[in-house]
Each structure stands twice: as structure tokens, then as C-alpha cells.
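User: Can you fold this complex?
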Amino acid sequence: MTMATDRFLAAIVASSDDAIVGKTLDGTITSWNPAAERLYGFTAEEAIGQPITLVIPEDRPDELPMIMTRMRHGQRIDHYETIRRHKDGRRLEISVSVSPVYDEDGAIIGAASIARDITERRQRERERRELEQRAYEAILQREAALHESNTTLEIINRVGRLLAAELDLERLIQAVTDAATTLTGAQFGAFFYNALDARGEFYTLYAIAGVPREAFSQFPLPRNTALFAPTFRGEGTVRVADVRLDPRFGQNAPYYGMPEGHLPVVSYLAVPVIGHDGTVLGGLFFGHAEPDVFGERAERLVEGLAGQAAVAVENARLFQQVQRELAARTESEARFRAVWAATSEALALSDPDGRVLDVNPAYCELYGRRAEELIGESFALIFAEDARPAAEVQYREIFAHPEAPPAYDACVQRPDGSERIVEARSDFLVHEGQRVAMVSAIHDITERVQMEAALQASEARFRTLIERSIDAIQLVTPDGVILYTSDSVESVLGYQPGEILGRSIIDYLHPEDLAGIIAWVDGVAATPGGVASHRYRVRHKDGSWAWVDATLANHLATPSIGALVGNFRNVTDRVREEMEREAFVDAAAHDLKTPLTTVLAQAQLLRRRTGRPQGLEPAALASGLLAIEGAAGRMAALIEEMMDAAHLSAGRKLELRFALVDLLDLVEAAVEETQRAASGHTIRIEAGAAALAGMWDTERLARVLANLLSNAVKYSPVRSEVIVQVGQVVDPDGSAWATVAVRDEGMGIPAAEMPRLFERFYRGTNVSGRTHGTGIGLSGARQIVEQHGGTILVESEEGRGSTFTIRLPLTTVQRPSSWRDARSGPACTSVPG
Amino acid sequence: LTLIKTILVVDDERALRAVVREILLDEGYAVLEAADGLAMLDVIARAPVDLVLMDVMMPRGDGRDAYRELRSRPDLPRVPVVMMSAAVQLESLDPSLAAVLRKPFDVDHLVALVHSLIGTADA
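Assistant: Here's the predicted assembly.
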């Protein structure tokens, strides 16, 4: 630019009617022409170097920053109407255009504004608009007075009716927007309906009128910017004649005004829609490309409409909420119903009295009943009849007590009588703090319980087999170290497993058996899979020797075992019994051989004597034959007695041969017989009566007496006395008994052995093994006495002697019809001495 | 007369003592009897006896006990003793016994045994 041009331009500026002011980007005035001096009242000297705020009223602090921001962005401002201040304080209405000023390099260094006083023009415009308004009001009043429906009222009425009826929010908003747009003469209108998100910024629901929705849809929804905020905050209506000149306009990134391609908005009208409680429901926004389109009339119309819209929106909102809730409830109800019907868990709903309110199909299936049978009846129907009252009591307990267990098991019964075990869990529906219904969820656990029971039973069986069997099981090393022992070792040998684990079996073995056991164990250990049995003696915990039968199996190569497995059982009683049997047979042989020896010797003697020259004298022959007869007879009696003993020891009853007999006779005969063989003892009879007759088996009673007497002699010292008391007693009930008591002065019987005294094959421990006999024993004696309907008792004191007492019934029930034939008459033997 | 040899028969079975006495009397011996071991010791203490024939098992004064007692008492003569038994096992009997006679026995055998031990009655 040349100097000539500068001067030319300076002349134009100086002579211009418009005030032309230059300023830097920070607002410092750099030039001030004569028209500016006239307009603002400041001389160039007064103004230059001062901030431009010199002429901007204090109530418009935002204007300069707004203008400068636009300058820095190289944007012009055309015909912006605003207020400035004269030096004398007057407010000046001006129209101003502001342009950025570039340096030679194109950088923005300042701004130039051209301002014109429009105070008078604005005054004229205001007057005209007031005239118009008054004219409009006059028309409006006239129209209302004439009840003529003009377009506006028609729309208002229509919208009013619609608003009252319409509950669909979107349609409602659209209707309001359409009506308001028409009424205001806007080119387009929009209703942004507040749908605040968490940050309170976005408005998602909106309706558009006047333009296709697409015209808006590519832009972001309006934000809470300076221009929109008063509306969305519900501060009141915003009506701007030319939005471009509004200081609130164009200050926000990223657009600083309207985005490119936006519908042209110059006239702007925005009315908040406020609910009855002050809540801002949204805003109605209107625009027009021409400035100053919306007047007060439009504003009031829209405000009225907004009031009605607010009510309608609230109604619709409420309605929608109700609809949503209903829908949600219906949906949840439907879901609940589906679950109720489909679940395999049996469910029931019951009232506080236990009446069933509802049941699901699984419940019906579980209990084998139809829903109609169950609903309305007591829940206790599912129990066996006799269990129902208790179940109802329990139900009320659970219902009444919050602390009652929420889960419990029960045994229920189906109509066909089959029983199921169920597990029930309960929950309650609570209304105003009161339990109003019980929800029960029931699981059929019958199979589970049965399986558990079966499993437990089989485990228990197995454990019992091992632990309770009479066999003890041990795992031992080939060296005899005990690795494991079952608990049953206690019942077999008296030891706790812990006492003997880790010990050697040798510690417990009878020395006499040791060699045999070592050979046995070595033999099994040397044979993979080998099994062998052995009988030997083991020290019992009580110190005695116990006989065991043991089987040893070689499981050294079995992975889970790796040892010798020994099973053994205590066979002491059996061994003792076998020994007793053997002794019995030995004794029988011995006892029979004794008279047999006599028989044979007599026979040989007779033969030898017949061979002699002098021959055999008849008297000697008779004597010899008599001895043979006697010995043979004793043998027959012995055999008879052995048979009895064998029968009795086998627990069989004898066939008693009853006959009328005097007990005293029997006792005397028995005493005489015993006394003959026991010359060292004195056996004395004490009888309380001359005779004591009854129906008894003579031979068997004789054996009982012989047994008691020989025991008394056997177990008492030489030259001691054995006293036999014979008498009779009458019990309080009138029954009469014959009694025989055999008292000795012998060693007595240890108290511990008294209970076993009458057992078969039992022999006292303080008796030497030398005594022998094939007699019936105490066991046989007791059986014979009891078969007579009598009793046998023993009293004994160790070291002092024993008394055996038998009681025989005197009024014998079993009286054979032929008893008179058995004996010609009652025996009445007088007692000698 | 004192030369007649005397044999003591000890058995709890009277019938057996009787037949043995008859047998020995036929052979010319003198015979004494006792019913048990204790009685045997009494007889030996009081009368000269050349041989004892004694049963093992007797209710009182068992033969074995009596034999042990007989041998342990210095006041009693060392009379040979033949033990008679009907028992099955006789192996456990004292080996110092003159002989063991199993019951029932053969009379000829008994006579031969007695002869071999003490000779005939008058020898």
C-alpha cells in the first residue's frame, strides 16, 4: 500500500458520517475519526490509547470479549445492533459492523468497527411494533368476542383437546410442536424433551416441525450452552430478534455459532415447558431465517401452549410410567409363571393356617395329586394320615417363629401309600411386617437318602465283617512284625490294636508252639500266593493262653497289601471242648476196661481151674460166674450212664422212667456205694422223716446222687465228713418239695466260677487234671433234676466247702398210668439206726 | 512159713482185687489188698510185701502219687511195683517201675510176669 493510498483512505475515514474506530486485539483504541468524536463525545486525543470499553456500557461486559474472539478467528460481524455509551452517559443504540485488520503478512493484528447511530430508527420501529401489537390485540379481542374460530384458536382448541386426550408422549410432543410452529409463523420448530442422563446434559427425545427430521438429525442435540441454558433451566422465555447479534450466541466450541449446514436461524424463540412442581420437562424452540419474526403474541401463544403441554406431558409421562410398570409387572409375572410351571422343584404357596393357595406341576407330580385336590386344602394332606396333626402343629411353629429352621426333612406319603423323603425350604411373603404366606420349595431326596443309607449299610457291613467278626485280621511282615490289626483283635485276644502294632508276634506265642509257627510262617512267606492254616496258643491280655486257628496268606506281592495276611479266631473253648471229649472217651474206655478186666480175668481163672487135676469146685464156679455177672452188669450200667451223659451233653432230653420211689432208699444206696470206694471219708445221712416217696426216675436220680456224693468226696480232704440232709419243705404257695442237700468240707468253689459250674464239660480250675469220670457231671445232674420239675442250687465258700441242694416236687404231675405195675406197692423202708 | 511170698493188690475195684487174689492164691502166693494208694502205704509200713500190683487211677491216693511217696520214704522197703492201668496212655509212667500191666490183661501173662519178678511162691 502506498503513501498516496494511505492519505486517500485517511481522508475517507476523516470525512465519513459513520464512526470508524480502530483497535488492537486487546481492545486498545488506535484510531478514532471525527464522526466517532461526534457519536461518542470523546475527542481523538481522549480516546486513542484508551480501552474500547470507554464506550461500552458496564452492564454489557461480555460483548467485547465476544467480538474480539470472533476477530481473532477472522470472522466479520455485520450490522450488529447494540448499545454504546456517550461521554455524557447517554445510552446510544447503534448498528455496528466489525472487521478484522490484517498486517502485511496476513496476521490479524486488530479490528476496525464502523458504527452508526440508530437510536432514532429503533425508536420508530418500536413505535410501529406497538401499533401492530395493539392492532393485533384489537383483532384478537374482536375475534374472541365474535366467537369466531380463527386459525389460531382452532389450532389451540384442537391442540388443547389433543393434549387432554393424548397419552402417547411422542405423538403429543409432535402435536404441540406442529401447532406451535404454525401459530408462531416459525419456519421450523422443535420440542426437546428433557431426558437427562447421569451427567444431566443430553436431551434425547425431540419433535421437529416445518422441516424434515433429517435436517436436524445430522447435528448434535442442543446443549446447555449460554443460549439454550435459560430455557432448559426453566428461567423463562428467550426471544431474540436476531440471534446473530445476541451476545450469548456463538461463544461455544466447536462451532461458535451455528454449524455449517445448519438451518438458518435469525429470529429465535424458546419457551421452557415446566411441570406443576417446577420440574423442567423440556423446551419448545422456534426459528426463522428472517430477523424479528416472533413477537409478543407468538411468545404468549407458545407460553400458553407450553403450560398445557406440561400438563399433558406429565399425564403422558405418568401414563407411560404406569404402562411401563404394568408391562414390567406383567412381564415379571409371566416370567415367574413360566418358572413356576417349568421348574422341577416342587413349589407351594400356603397361608398362615396351612391352607394351600397354589402349587406348581412339580409339586403335584411329587405328591401324586392333582392341583384341584391340593389347593384350598391343608398342606398336611401330603403326610400319612396319622402324621398330619403333628405336621400342622409344626407348620404353625415355623410360621410363627422367625428363628425356626428354614430347611427340614420330612417323610410324606402319596395316595398310593408309597413314601417319599423330602427336603423342604421355606420363605415367607411379608406384608406390613406380618408373614402372610409361606413359599415352600420341596426336593425329593428319597433316592439320595436311600443311596446314602445303602452305602452306609454296605460300609457298615464291610466294617462289621472286619471289625466285628470273630476273626481278627493282621498284616505281618515275614519276620512277624505286626503292621496292622483289626479292632476285633480286642474281642479275640483282649488287646487294643495300638498296644500290639509294631510288635513281633513272637512276643505273644507259647514257647512250645514257636518252632511250628516259625516253620508255618516261613513256608507261607516262601510261596507267592501261598495259604496255610495252623493252630497254636497265644497269650491273651488276661494272661491265659488262648488257642487260635490261624490262616496265613501270602500277599507280599499284592500292591495294596505287601504283607502276610493272617486271619485268626479264638478257638480256646472249642479246643477245650475237644480235649474234654477226648478225655471223656479216654475215661469211658478206662471205666469200661475196669469191669471188663474182671470179666476176662474171672473167665480165664475159671478156665485155668477146670484144667487143674482137682478140677473146679461147683461153689467156686458159681462165685466166679457171679463176679462175671456183676462186672458185666456194671458195664451195662456204665454204658447206660455214658449214653445219658452223651445225650445230656448234646442238650437232648432224657426219656424219664417214672416210678414210685422212696428218696431215702435212693440216698442210702448211693451213700453206701460211695462210702465203699471212699473209706477215708465219713458220709452221714441226716433224715427228717422215715420215708419220702415220690414219682421219680430211680436210676437217673441215683446217678444225680452218685455224682453229688462222688464230687463231695473227690473235692474234700480225707477223714473229713460229708453230710447228706434229706427233708421236705412246703412253699408259701402250698407246693411241697423233697430236698437233698450234700454238704462237704472241701476246697470250695471260687465265686467267679459259680456261674459256669453247671456248664457242659466244665471243670473247676482248682481241680487237678487227674480226676476222671464218664459221669453225667453237674451239667447232666442239673438237667435230670430240672426234667423232674426240680431245681439244683449250690452254695460255696472257697476253703470252707460247698453245699449242693436239689429240690424235687413231691406232687408229681407225670404219673404213668401203669405205675402200679411198675412196683407192687409203695416202698416203706425204715431208716437204720 | 515166712518164706511164702506176699503180693499186695491195690485197686479201687473190689471185684478186680478179688479175681487177682484168686489167681495169685492159685499160684501159692500170699495176697494182701488195699483200695487205694494211701491204704497201700499203710499196709507196706506194717507187713512184709514182696510185690505190689497197683492200679494207676484211683479216686483217692492216685497210684503215681503213692509210688512216688513209697520211693521217697526211707522207712519203707524198696518193694518192686507193677502198675496196672486201663488208661490209653502209659508212656508217662515212672521208668523205675518194675513193670506196667495193661488192663485188661491175660492171666497167664500176669502169672508169668509175677514169676519173672519175684520167682514162684516158694522159691
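Chain B touches chain A at residues 12-16, 18-20, 22-23, 26, 35-36, 38-39, 57, 59-60, 62, 85-89, 103-108, 110 (CB under 8 Å). Chain B is about 35% helix and 20% strand.
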